[in-house]
């Protein structure tokens, strides 16, 4: 059960980083920013925020299982 929640948490954090644009360099990030509409940017940031929050919750559950 611990491995399941830990793996799910890491996957959600990686998805959040991908959608947030944290894994690209500055030129690529500028290009992505100026080629997106405001609606698309809000949608992408919503996915990043939701998956990041879910990842943190899964990692906290894994920590609770580990310590208790």
Report on this model:
- With 68 residues, the protein is an all-alpha fold.
- Helices cover 87% and strands 0% of the residues.
- It has one domain.
- The protein has helices at residues 2-20, 26-35, 38-67.
- This is Protein-export membrane protein SecG.
- Keywords: Membrane, Transmembrane, Transmembrane helix.
- It comes from Caldibacillus thermoamylovorans.
- The chain crosses the membrane at residues 6-23, 43-67.
How large, in whole angstroms, is the Cα Rg? 15 Å
Enumerate the spans where pLDDT stays under 50 for 5 or more consecutive residues.
none
Largest sheet: none
- Quaternary state reads single chain
Number of DSSP helical runs: 3
Percent in helix: over 70%
Topology readout:
Blueprint: H1 2-20, H2 26-35, H3 38-67
Highlighted features:
DUF5316; 0% strand; mainly alpha
Short description:
Helix content is 87%, strand content 0%. With 68 residues, it is mainly alpha-helical.
């Amino acid at each position: 059960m611990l491995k399941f929640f830990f793996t799910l948490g890491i996957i959600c954090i990686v998805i959040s980083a991908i959608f947030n644009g944290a894994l690209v360099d500055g030129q690529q990030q500028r290009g992505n920013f100026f080629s997106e509409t405001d609606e698309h940017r809000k949608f992408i940031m919503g996915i990043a925020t939701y998956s990041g929050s879910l990842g943190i919750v899964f990692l906290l559950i894994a920590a609770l299982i580990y310590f208790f």
